[in-house]
């Protein structure tokens, strides 16, 4: 596992639909999905991160948005996810069967501006460290 299991908690699962032409996401831990200002990662069963991101509000809402973007692209209706990326999601799920979303909400840090949660800094550090296949930008 590349991401610390003490900090990153499993929150959702991504699988192929029955006809294997689209994806679906199921929430597995509603409490973890309530976290905001958090970092999440989609990981394979062996713990390899394939996508790392953040959510300002609810982690669950962000994780549940993946099928809409990916499936829209797979059906040729455009959207935020490029077709090549949607196909990579499909290939990963075909290869691994399932991806797990893990979520971590960093502790607040005292700064000159007051308490802040450094979730964007944690995301940048993890992307730089792990170079996930499905992160288009390496901030």
Throw out a few tags for this protein:
alpha+beta; single chain; five-stranded antiparallel β-sheet; 28% strand; 139 residues; globular; two-stranded antiparallel ribbon; 7 strands
Main sheet: strands, sense, barrel: 5 strands, antiparallel
How large a portion of the residues is in β-strands, by DSSP E?
25-35%
So what's the overall shape?
globular
Secondary structure tally, helices = 5
Mean pLDDT: 92
Rg from Cα: 15 Å
Strand order of the largest sheet: 2-1-5-3-4
Structural class: alpha+beta
> What is the string of helix and strand elements?
EEHEEHHHEEEH
Distance between the termini: 23 Å
Helix content: 25-40%
Counted beta strands: 7
Please mark out the parts with pLDDT under 50 across 5 or more consecutive residues, or reply none: none
Write the layout of secondary structure elements.
Layout: E1 9-16, E2 23-27, H1 30-33, E3 38-43, E4 49-55, H2 59-64, H3 66-74, H4 83-96, E5 98-104, E6 109-111, E7 114-116, H5 119-130
Antiparallel strand pairs: 1-2, 1-5, 3-4, 3-5, 6-7
Helix pairs in contact: 3-4
Please summarize what this structure is:
The chain is an alpha+beta fold and 139 residues long. It has helices at residues 30-33, 59-64, 66-74, 83-96, 119-130, and strands at residues 9-16, 23-27, 38-43, 49-55, 98-104, 109-111, 114-116.
Explain what this protein looks like in three dimensions.
The protein has a five-stranded antiparallel sheet with strand order 2-1-5-3-4, sandwiched between helices. It has a two-stranded antiparallel sheet with strand order 6-7. The longest helix has 14 residues, at 83-96. The protein is globular and about 50 Å long. With 139 residues, it is α+β, with helices and mostly antiparallel strands. It is built from five helices and seven strands; from the N terminus they run E-E-H-E-E-H-H-H-E-E-E-H. Helix 3 (66-74) packs across helix 4 (83-96).
């Amino acid at each position: 596992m590349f991401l610390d299991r003490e900090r990153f908690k499993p929150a959702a699962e991504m699988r192929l639909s029955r006809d294997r032409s689209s994806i679906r996401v199921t929430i597995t831990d509603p409490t973890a999905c309530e976290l905001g200002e958090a970092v999440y990662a989609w990981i394979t069963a062996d713990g390899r991160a394939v996508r790392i991101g953040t959510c300002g509000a609810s982690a669950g809402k962000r994780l549940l948005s993946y099928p809409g973007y990916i499936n829209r692209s797979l059906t040729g209706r455009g959207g935020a996810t490029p077709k090549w990326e949607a196909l990579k999601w499909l290939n990963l799920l075909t290869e691994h069967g399932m991806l797990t979303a893990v979520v971590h909400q960093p502790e607040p840090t005292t700064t000159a501006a007051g308490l802040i949660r450094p979730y964007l800094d944690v995301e940048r550090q993890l992307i730089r460290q792990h170079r996930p296949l499905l992160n288009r930008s390496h901030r």
